[in-house]
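PROTEIN DESIGN WORKSHEET
SECTION A - STRUCTURE
LENGTH: 1146
TOKENS:
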């Protein structure tokens, strides 16, 4: 068979590659070029290997070291280590080299393990078997050996090994069905179409004899032997063949050139506010370090300026040392002091933070409250670097469909010429589940109306992309119709499934698509057959609606239903043939094909006759309203960004309590801008929201007072484009700032008719505003990925619109309701823990190094160390690291149940409250005070005093060991005082660390170690403990050091308590309270209940459902209309049932 030349006109490219054109010529089956072709130059294409790993066996060490030493802290300690090796420094290079080696090794092991997992996944993918067609026979090879031009056979439930041009299938109509769950999570079936001239090749022999050429990026005039191709002929790597026995395709893009590989976009590195604070504090301590070194260097030369102070009689300098350059000597001394004091920079803090984030992230994945039994999904943590950012969120941007709503469509009603049809009978407000048929609001239609009614039902039954599966073994969302047939409807659009099922309950059943004919079963149980015209795209048509249908559509839209109008047009045979020719000419056009198709459809879609309208309900997610209400109480502003129309989106916002009854809605829409200029609308809105005292503050709008006047803003995508568009003078900042000022004054914002990139624009606009708030974006579809990547924290909902959002997010949750616990509990705990970790590390290092600074004043600035080398090395690694790590993993200053009941506690830690400069300065001053107590307490207590039984006094190393012992006990007990949640693990680690220090010191100074050249600490620690005054000094100095912090906590808690401290004072926290470590079984047991006395105040509010009688039938009362006026509803006596309240308005 000779199919001449096939031209691939379009290939969907990844983001950022829109202007890239890949021109290639592919000979199907690697056949020789056809006679008369131009000179054949073989093109080289990559093989089919996928490489997602970062390292290889050979480049892992150099590449990983290069990346790690790009971090300022690691590079700094490397320089210090090299300085210790080069010049004569007071401390051993081991003291800096060992901690640095530990940090580098732990990080390298973690990154190496993660890359090994990527290598493992790549090998599994590259070695999977693939069936090739060679010389008309089926050959099995590994996927990595696949080349461009190979003909591949793929069987049902197999994934496509590369990007293929679909040549043929076992189906007579040349179609196949695929799912892209492994690409974007879409489990719905999508239909693809074989090349028209090759769809008849069904055997290996036919395909093996195919002579054809594919050219991509081709342009030029139309030739008769060219067959244009499009995306409907393209099968992407990673998609799975479904409901089709087998297909044949030719490889056109392989390996790293496939669509899937090109979409491996590197995400921008997100940094948390805590990490930025750490870097700022690090710079301050670096300045302190340099200042200390400079002061000691200057004072050393001032000290040595007097005669003979620089060369005592027992160590006189040589002539060459006297002639040495003064500047060089001063610089060397400066570096030596830098080395001596470098421990003030906590290198071990970075590895501790990494471990805390990595291990702490498991508390989210282990949380059984966030596990969804319906889907069998639990929360996922894709990155642990942003755990603490969950406790700092100020703005939440959420999608609507599938996130706030279930994306589970149900056909509610249809309206035809003034008659309303409901698939179920409603009696006294109750739906009768056993009943089926038609419930008509008005009288039955006339004969002419009956004909239009059936035409309407036939339109719904035929105009869709629904597929029929004859058995239940099908993947993805599916529903079984209510009729007697056992077929299952499948579609890429849940709306279409709902409409087909709804019209089935109204008497018309869609049966199948067979041999280009669509079959349906009418009310008389007669099968009707219609020619299938595969037009395959969606358009929106504007039409004028009759008054009744318009009112019904608006009513349904206000109630949050998705509406669709149905119209038709009668064509005579000549018109039909002309339309077919027009469409065919547009389809085969090589240039401006989309434009010509649009013109053709514009010509067709004229003079349409309206038949009626439908309403489909997308139900609200479980506890979505409670979640949003809690988030608003926590001081978080919630914005809804959706592509839906304004009325539907606003109704959803009312239902989920984003807008409340007293919310005054402000509209910034295209319709209003057409009536007034953008400038006038913005200034009018600005005057409205700022009319009251200033604007609404966080505390105002988050309090959710029923009597408080607040504002809600509605903006559409076109209006946003005008705001973001640069003005004629080249600036757009004025409009943006005015828009931001209006948004800040509104309690909630709804952005409708938003494109995916506009969602990201909104997030970016708020993200980089002058307050620089922490933003969070949550969505469930591929159209939400852009805003998820743009926000500080991105959360994907594992929903029915696919997993693309979950895979590109930082965290993934099964349902929107789980966002409440993730932020108010986990985020709160993460921030509390890591902020204490950071401040504690700087505090204990000030305590550690400041006595060393003071000691230089008593040793002639000779760079003599106060502590032994072993103590210098192990202080941050062993003696004080484990207690703070366990604290940062397990601390709960308030019980989980209290945090969930009182969302306002979230505001206590907002805006990085625990890592502000005021708190940082307090911790630093506390460290300086403790260091002064350690040093001068020991100094004055033993000055000119005999402290041993034999009359000897303490020496240099005994004095340093005493200071070090007091310090270790003080900083450890300080952490114990800060601990609120005690477990046996805390007790074991805190008291075990102190015991380890004592045992180590006894062994280090009590045993002669053969591998040491000298042992200056021999018997020092034992000698110190044998002295009664030393024991007294340890107890007294530890008490004095801890006293100021204890007094400060007591006074502040009594005089200026925070909301958290008031809860701690008023609500005792027993050991068996709800915690991260409480088994789920105990929470469900009847005997388990909260012991907090304020629990009754936080009881859940009952949900109010309002029904209204309309024309003798019961329907849901719509929320307040979309206007600036405030609406009030009066209540009549209500009939109540447990947990809910129903009011009837007549």
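SECTION B - SEQUENCE
RESIDUE ASSIGNMENT:
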């Amino acid at each position: 068979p000779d199919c001449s030349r096939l031209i691939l006109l379009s290939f969907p490219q990844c983001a950022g590659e829109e202007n890239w054109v890949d021109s290639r010529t592919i000979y199907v089956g690697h056949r020789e070029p056809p006679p008369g072709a131009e000179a054949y130059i073989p093109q080289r294409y990559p093989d089919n290997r996928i490489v997602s790993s970062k390292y290889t066996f050979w480049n892992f060490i150099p590449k990983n070291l290069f990346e790690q030493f790009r971090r300022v802290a690691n590079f700094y300690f490397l320089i210090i280590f090299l300085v210790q090796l080069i010049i004569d420094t007071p401390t051993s290079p081991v003291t800096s080299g060992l901690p640095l080696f530990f940090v580098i090794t732990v990080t390298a092991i973690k990154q190496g393990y993660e890359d090994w997992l990527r290598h493992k996944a790549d090998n599994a993918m590259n070695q999977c078997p693939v069936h090739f067609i060679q010389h008309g026979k089926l050959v099995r090879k590994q996927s990595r050996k696949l080349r461009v031009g190979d003909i591949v056979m793929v069987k049902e439930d197999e994934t496509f090994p590369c990007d293929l041009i679909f040549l043929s299938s076992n189906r007579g109509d040349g179609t196949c069905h695929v799912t892209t769950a492994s690409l974007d999570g879409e489990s719905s079936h999508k239909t693809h179409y074989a090349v028209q001239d090759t769809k008849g090749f069904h055997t290996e022999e036919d395909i093996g004899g195919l002579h054809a050429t594919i050219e991509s990026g081709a342009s030029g005039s139309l030739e008769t032997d060219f067959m244009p191709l499009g995306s409907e002929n393209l099968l992407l790597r990673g998609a799975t063949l479904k409901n089709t026995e087998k297909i044949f395709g030719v490889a056109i893009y392989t390996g790293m050139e496939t669509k899937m590989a090109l979409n491996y976009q590197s995400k921008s590195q997100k940094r948390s506010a805590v990490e930025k604070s750490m870097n700022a504090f690090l710079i301050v301590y670096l300045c302190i370090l340099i200042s200390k070194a400079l002061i000691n260097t200057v004072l050393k030369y001032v000290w040595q300026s007097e005669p003979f102070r620089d060369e005592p009689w027992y160590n006189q300098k040589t002539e060459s040392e006297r002639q040495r350059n003064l500047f060089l000597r001063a610089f060397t001394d400066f570096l030596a002091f830098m080395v001596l004091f470098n421990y003030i920079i906590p290198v071990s803090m970075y590895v501790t933070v990494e471990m805390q984030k990595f291990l702490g992230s498991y508390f989210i994945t282990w949380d059984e409250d966030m596990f969804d039994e319906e889907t069998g999904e639990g929360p996922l943590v894709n990155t642990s670097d942003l755990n603490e950012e969950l406790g700092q969120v100020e703005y939440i941007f959420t999608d609507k469909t599938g996130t706030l709503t279930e994306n589970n469509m149900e056909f509610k009603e249809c309206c035809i010429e003034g008659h309303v049809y409901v698939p179920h009978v409603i009696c006294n407000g109750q739906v009768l589940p056993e009943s089926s048929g038609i419930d008509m609001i008005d009288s039955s239609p006339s004969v002419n109306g009956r004909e239009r009614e059936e035409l309407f039902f036939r339109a719904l039954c035929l105009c869709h992309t629904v597929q029929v599966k004859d058995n239940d073994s099908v993947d993805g969302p599916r529903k079984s119709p209510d009729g007697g047939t056992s077929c299952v409807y499948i579609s890429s659009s849940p709306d279409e499934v709902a409409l087909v099922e709804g019209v089935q309950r109204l008497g018309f059943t869609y049966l199948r698509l067979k041999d280009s004919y669509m079959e349906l079963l009418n009310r008389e149980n007669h099968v009707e057959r219609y020619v299938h015209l595969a037009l395959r795209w969606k358009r929106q048509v504007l039409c004028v609606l009759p008054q009744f249908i318009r009112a019904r559509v608006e009513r349904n839209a206000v109630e949050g239903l998705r509406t669709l109008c149905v119209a038709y047009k009668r064509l005579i045979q000549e018109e039909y043939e002309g339309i077919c020719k027009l469409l065919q000419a547009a389809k085969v056009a090589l240039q401006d094909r989309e434009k010509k198709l649009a013109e053709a459809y514009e010509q067709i879609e004229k003079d349409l006759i309206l038949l009626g309208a439908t309403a489909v309900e997308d139900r609200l997610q479980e506890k979505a309203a409670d979640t949003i209400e809690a988030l608003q109480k926590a001081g978080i502003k919630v914005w809804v960004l959706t592509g839906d129309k304004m009325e539907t989106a606003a109704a959803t916002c009312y239902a989920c309590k984003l807008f409340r009854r007293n919310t005054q809605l402000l509209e910034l829409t295209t319709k209003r801008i057409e009536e007034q200029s953008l400038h006038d609308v913005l200034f009018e809105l600005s005057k409205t929201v700022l009319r009251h005292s200033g604007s609404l503050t966080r505390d105002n709008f988050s309090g959710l007072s029923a009597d408080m006047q607040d504002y809600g803003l509605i903006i559409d995508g076109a209006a946003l484009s005008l705001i973001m568009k640069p003005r004629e003078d080249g600036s757009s900042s004025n409009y943006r700032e005015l828009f931001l000022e209006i948004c800040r004054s509104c309690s909630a914002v709804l952005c409708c008719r938003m494109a995916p990139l506009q969602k990201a624009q909104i997030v970016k606009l708020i993200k980089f505003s002058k307050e620089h708030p922490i933003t969070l974006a949550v969505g469930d579809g591929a159209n939400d990925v852009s805003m998820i990547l743009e926000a500080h924290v991105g959360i994907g909902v594992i929903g029915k619109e696919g997993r693309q959002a979950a895979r590109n997010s930082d965290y993934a949750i099964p349902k929107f309701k789980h966002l409440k616990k993730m932020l108010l509990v986990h985020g709160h705990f993460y921030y509390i823990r890591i902020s204490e970790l950071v401040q504690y590390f700087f505090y204990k290092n000030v305590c550690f190094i400041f006595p060393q600074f003071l000691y230089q004043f008593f040793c002639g600035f000779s760079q003599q160390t106060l502590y032994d080398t072993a103590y210098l090395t192990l202080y941050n690694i062993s003696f004080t690291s484990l207690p703070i790590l366990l604290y940062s993993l397990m601390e709960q200053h308030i019980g989980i149940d209290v945090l969930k009941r009182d969302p306002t506690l979230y505001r206590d830690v907002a805006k990085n409250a625990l890592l502000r400069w005021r708190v940082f300065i307090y911790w630093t001053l506390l460290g300086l005070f403790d260091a002064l107590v350690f040093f001068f307490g020991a100094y004055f207590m033993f000055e000119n005093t005999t402290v041993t039984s034999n009359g000897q006094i303490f020496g240099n190393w005994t004095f340093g060991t005493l200071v070090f012992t007091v310090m270790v006990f003080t900083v450890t007990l300080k952490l114990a005082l800060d601990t609120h949640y005690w477990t046996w693990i805390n007790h074991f680690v805190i008291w075990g660390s102190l015991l380890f220090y004592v045992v180590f010191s006894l062994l280090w100074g009590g045993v002669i170690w053969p591998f040491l050249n000298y042992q200056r600490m021999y018997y020092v620690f034992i000698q110190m403990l044998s002295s009664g005054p030393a024991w007294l000094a340890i107890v007294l100095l530890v008490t004095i050091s801890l006293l100021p912090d204890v007094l400060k906590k007591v006074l502040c808690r009594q005089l200026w308590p925070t909301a958290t401290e008031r809860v701690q004072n008023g609500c005792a926290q027993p050991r068996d309270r709800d915690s991260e470590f409480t088994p789920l079984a105990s929470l469900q047991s009847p005997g388990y209940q909260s012991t907090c006395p304020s629990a009754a105040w936080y009881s859940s509010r009952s949900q109010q459902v309002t029904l209204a009688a309309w024309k003798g039938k019961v329907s849901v009362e719509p929320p307040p209309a979309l206007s600036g006026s405030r609406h009030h509803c009066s209540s009549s006596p209500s009939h109540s049932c447990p947990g809910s309240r129903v009011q009837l308005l007549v």
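SECTION C - NOTES
Residues 1106 and 1143 are 5 Å apart (CA to CA).
The longest helix spans residues 818-855.
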